[in-house]
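thought: fold this chain, then report.
action: predict
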Amino acid sequence: MHKSKLLVSFFSCMLAIGMIASLVGCGGGKNNPKEIPTLNVGWSNELHTGQMELSMVRSEKFSGNKTHLKPISDVQLELVKDGKTIAYINKILTKGAAECATLLGQGHMDVAYCSSTGMISAYDSGTDVNILCPIQSGGIAIVAAKDAPYNTFEELVAYAKKAEIPIMAGYHSAVSSPRVVLEYALKEAGLKVTENQADFEADVVMMDLKGISNLIPALSSGQVELWAGPIPNPQNAEAQGIGKIIATLDELPGGKWVDFPCCTMNVRTEIKEKYPEIIQALVDVTYDISEYATNNREDTAEALSAFVGLDKSILAKNDTTYAINPDQRFQDGMKLYVEVMTEIGKLKGRLSGMSYDHAKDLVFDFSFANNTLKNKK
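observation:
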């Protein structure tokens, strides 16, 4: 090729590369959709984690905030900070902590709002996950079949000790807080609890009902005659005339479970380290949603009625405490969970035999919540 033609070809290529670089410079950065990360975030359609749905159905209440979630479809939102989209959020509707633990472990979920005990168990089993902060406390009750011959927890214990066959008790998720609380409370009361349905020497046989939606059907069909579950399922069981609440957390013996912490905001460690700004923004958003749910009970009940699938009048009975403050009370609760899960044989992996003081440095990271609380003052 002639030298002049080579020069023309060279400068043409350089011009093309320059134009591409210019286009990338104009459309790139944080506002380039190709460079904005997408996170998969899960919560359930109940009142322990379902308040996050307010970002979908009451988005206008938060749109004026510096950081907020903006729905762009039924299953996707934009995480907006200072007027810029910093992440896309895919909403994943989950069945409970056990499913969240599986999805986090597989890398199919990045952030999960679910039971803290599920995340403690997930870490123990080898999933690198951190609990960032509480999102609620309380809101758990023990429900028995309507015709059960006992009306209080104490009467349940007395009946179980004399019954000729074991009582069948259910739980919605193998590593959920309600399951841990129920099993420990029964054992602490002196009952023999097992999952072996062939053990007729047991007082209570526990069964995995595999999802919150199966709690009431299992009670109405007689598959179980007892379960512990999150609000509003106990209230719904009473409203349908299927079950009766025999004890709330506050009514369990010893007083240790009063307004006890349950669900938390949790993140894969890899995601936290890769996108700290995004995780901080999500914690900020979670704080704002918690404040709204706490201070606007009636509107929250109305807003979440269709999502939860229950009448507003049932959701209005919600007495759950919503907050993200990892205060001493929350940490005392987490310590009790670790101790209880160790005692009943639920921690056999990385946390086996480990004290809470050691475990908390591995499982928990309160830095994001503390930053939010500091900036919100």
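thought: worth noting. Residues 3-27 form the longest helix (25 residues).
final: tokens above.
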